[in-house]
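Go through this one:
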Amino acid sequence: MTLKGKTAVITGSNSGIGLGVAREMARAGADVVLNSFTDRDEDHALAEEIAKEFSVNARYIQADMSKGEDCRGLIDKAGSCDILINNAGIQHVAPIDEFPLDKWDAIIAINLNSAFHTTAAALPKMRAAGWGRVVNIASAHGLTASPYKSAYVAAKHGVVGMTKTVALETAEEPITANAICPGYVLTPLVEAQIPDTMEKYNMGREEVIKKVMLERQPSREFATVEQLGGTAVFLCSDAAAQITGTTISVDGGWTAL
């Protein structure tokens, strides 16, 4: 499943799922553009490390995914954009009648609106190149719901719906659009929450993971960033050329319940 000669732009990719996807894209031979809202030396160093490790071209471009002009500017600055991975996202948990307005606006902007802006900017480049892949990182919460996550669930359902629309609009072209719906993924952020959760429930690591953190994930195992990256690589491969407008769940059986 080589992606050599393609350029992949991955939003929100200086850590966690986004970085994992970027690394797997590079492993498959794609040049990669990393992104986040910061502009630190370590952000650019990540791109340099990927370029050296996988012998590809890699760059880091700062852009704030809460701002439409930044989203579109990212695609312009990238130059080529054969593969677009919309991954940037944030979360906040609160009852809907107490949900802070600024948090609602930020989650909708970063989790949903950014994917609209980047896709709108990337499609003309894909059409000019005669090939393209849009892969949206949605969530199990794009297919189901949980209490106290109204903005996140609304945004991720929106991402799934927009994915289907883009797929229909490009159905007669060599461009596909799909969404990956992860369950709980073992990222550095999640890993950092384990000790506090162990203390709260007075449980050992494995017990708190299986009984508390992965209560809704039937496999009782986290998905990994490498697995999500591998799924994205598959969706960008020739083997997936007729897979468009759908979701692929990487959730240990969560949405099968």
The mean pLDDT is 97. The chain has two domains: 7-185+223-256, 186-222. Residues 101-129 form the longest helix (29 residues).
